Amino acid sequence: MCLEIINYMTDQLTFLQEGTFFGQNNSDLEEVVLGTFINYPDRYYEFADQVNIKGFSTESSRYVFTAIKECAEDSKIDIITVTDKVTSKGYNARIIEKTGYTLIDYINDIADRVSSDAHIKQHIKLLMAYSTRRELLTLSNEINKDSNDMVSPDDIIAKITDKIVELQEYADVEEYNPIKTLQGVIDNMSDKEGKNYIKTFIQEIDNFIFGWELSDLIIIAGAASMGKTAFVLEIVKNHIIRNLPVAVFSLEMSKEQMLTRMIASHGCIDLGKIRKKQLTSSDWNAFYDSAKYFENENYFIDDKSGDLNHICNKIRKLNIKNNCKFFVVDYLQLVTINLKSKSGTREQEISKISRAFKQLCRELKLVIIALSQISRAVSQRASKKPILSDLRESGAIEQDADMVMFVYRPAYYDIEERIPEIENVEIIIAKGRSTGIGSENLKYIGKFAKFASEVEFLENEKLQAFENYNRDF
What we know:
By secondary structure, the protein is of the alpha/beta class. It has 20 helices and 11 strands. A 9-stranded mixed β-sheet has the order 5-4-6-7-3-8-9-10-11, with helices on both faces.
């Protein structure tokens, strides 16, 4: 869709710059629309969501439209109420100056132009098309200015993208089609294999949530060193070995570190040995056997992008070029953002970041997992189990997220005992718009940075051997 938007914008700017468009304004059309609203008030209520003040290019038309809109909210729409509203707002002198008419003559003239409301739908479509062209021309001038002023290309692209999406949304109102909507519900219910969902391929989790819907923003949170990255990499790894497209934006680890951890998890290879360069021949065999699964070109790890605009632009690119629908950002609090006002708080910045990710999910029909830290206050409580209010800058994150999951390892807080080699871990679904809340238990093997379902644990010979070895000691 983004490519179509850019092509559309290019065509429109060429159209304007070549001079084939006979004018940016059409005051006659604007006055016909206003006259229809005055003579046939029901038509205003019918199309109020499809027209706005940007559709009117002349100052006088804007005054009358504003009056009509306020009359619709306060009382009723007719010549008398609209004239009175314009008068009460002090626009009389400006209308006389602009049109040469007295106020009552100007509004009467508008109303007299219209004897039928038969073509109002087409008129509004034309009206907003003129408005869109004006906005595109303004944007073209801003792009030229920003480029000459050496503004960052990423910032210019982000500005273009935001403006195009805004232009599409404010004039393109889809009428509700019950048959089409019902068919969508039926198709969704019939999708037993979850083809239109993003799966974790961790049995207990998928049994609970079935999968994430395309348009979901997922927050996976936990205390520092709790295993958030290891958990999400387990999910990413499950997609890679199935040759399913997935992209990871790592703001904390290098792409080599991430890839190493996924290979170690898949092959059950001791990360400590990898770090110390102490792999045995059997370890090397396991490493090469696992590495074969990561030779496909259907996944992407980006460890360079940290700015919000840069990340969003890359998500759009990967979505268009590679049909990628699944993205991970590790982690939310490390994303940077350029605010026009330097007085904004970090909470406001996080709010803008989470809102941008959620809007991207809805616009492009994809899933974004954003990892998040939680407040250190949880370590001061008797119960260390995290709750929604523990999220840093929790208000905005919690509001935007379709699901919030916490990684909770009770043994991590048991300072009296040595942390076991194989831990019981609770994955807490603290918010789930479509799934409800609850929790599922998994196994965590710290040496491999691996999360495993009960089923995988029972079926994986290496994990069984590891458990037996540790049980003997």
